[in-house]
Amino acid sequence: MRRRTGSGLWTRNFTILTLGTVVSMLGNAISGFVVGLMALDFTGSVFLMVLVNVVYNLPRVLLPALAGPYLDRFSRVRAIYSLDFLSAGIYALLAGLLYTGWFRYWLMLLAAPVLGAIDSVYATAYDSLFPTLASKENLPKAYSVSSLITPLASAMVPVAAYLYERMGLAPMFAINAASFLAAALFETRIRVREEHLDRPREAVRLRGYVEDLVQGARYIRAERGLQAIAGYYTLNALLGACSLLTLPYCKATPGLGVQWYTYVAGWWAAWPSTGSGFPWGGALQRRFASMPLAAPWMASACLPPCRR
Q1: 280-281-282 Cα angle (round to 5)
Q2: Residue 112, SS3 per DSSP
Q3: Among 84, 124, 194, 261, which is least packed, fewest CB within 10 Å?
Q4: Which domains does the chain have, with CATH numbers?
Q5: Rounded distance between C-alpha atoms, residue 214 and residue 8, angstroms
Q6: CB distance 33 to 163 below 8 Å
Q7: Interacting residues of 147 by C-beta distance below 8 A, sequence separation 6+
């Protein structure tokens, strides 16, 4: 795939993809917070709330390895905007069910793995397309911009808590549907030549998947730096799973409530963005590399003990 020429970072394609991602993630931050809160309010069960998160995240663990070889044979741009159109339709349907009173918890359990699968494939397509939209000298800046999107979107969590208490869930899902629709319309304007499509297409077979997976595993095994990165994100994901208990903890603790949860969740999301503006490298990087992992837990540790 050919990179955009020019010395500037904000080329047409990079700007469109970034804007589309920001818009969709703003809506996702809202619905992601509200879905967990709604599951807790609907059922009163921490287990059922966590179950929704489990079935949502399970496809995100399993699908990237399968989606990668598939996307190597098809247009990543088309995959990105098609998935955003599909997400807009699903959230619009959920909003309609809520407005009409037909929504039930089991519908949430059915929708969660579908949305998790969409999110997983979208992330794989985005990660493979993103570096092709900036020149080599602008890639560090591009990744700094990309690293700020999720923390900025998470700033909507306090707004989501405020709107949930005053509007309910249906308008929140409608907002999310509109955000995904806007993102998809942005992304249809991306014009880039995907050079992998010029190669003869091979039939998608199980053997091809296995060969691609084996090659990827061998590549990671040969690169110690990639092993360290993979280990860090694996550990971070496992520790981050414990944050699911923060919401019911805050709701059950007098004097905290949902608003305090938004403060903790905001700190969890905002802390990684503090590193984006630093000139990482050398002794500075070695000394402070573990801080993004430790600091969110420091915020959680400041919460008072639960007293019923």
Answers
A1: 145
A2: helix
A3: 194
A4: 12-222 (1.20.1250.20), 244-308 (no CATH)
A5: 37
A6: no
A7: 272, 273, 275, 276
The reported pLDDT for the residue numbered 1 is: 46
How far apart (Å, rounded) are the C-alpha atoms in residues 94 and 84? 15
Q: How many CB atoms lie within 10 A of CB 7?
A: 8
Q: Terminal CA-to-CA distance of the chain, rounded, Å?
A: 59
Residue 160 has pLDDT above 60, yes or no: yes
Smallest Cα–Cα separation from 124: which of 216, 244, 8?
216
Burial of residue 218 (CB within 10 Å: 0-12, 13-18, 19+) is exposed
Q: What is the pLDDT of residues 95-131, one digit of tens each?
A: 999 889 888 888 888 888 898 888 888 888 888 888 8
Q: Against a cut of 0.85, is the pTM above it? A: no
Place of tokens 């090659």: 215
Percent of the chain as helix, strand, coil, to the nearest 5: 80, 0, 20
How many other β-carbons are positioned within 10 Å of the β-carbon of residue 278?
Answer: 11
User: Would you say 260 and 250 are in contact if contact means Cβ atoms under 8 Å apart?
Assistant: yes
Distance between CA atoms of 200 and 81, rounded to whole angstroms?
24
Q: What is the DSSP letter of 1?
A: -
> Residues 180, 27: contact at Cβ < 8 Å?
yes
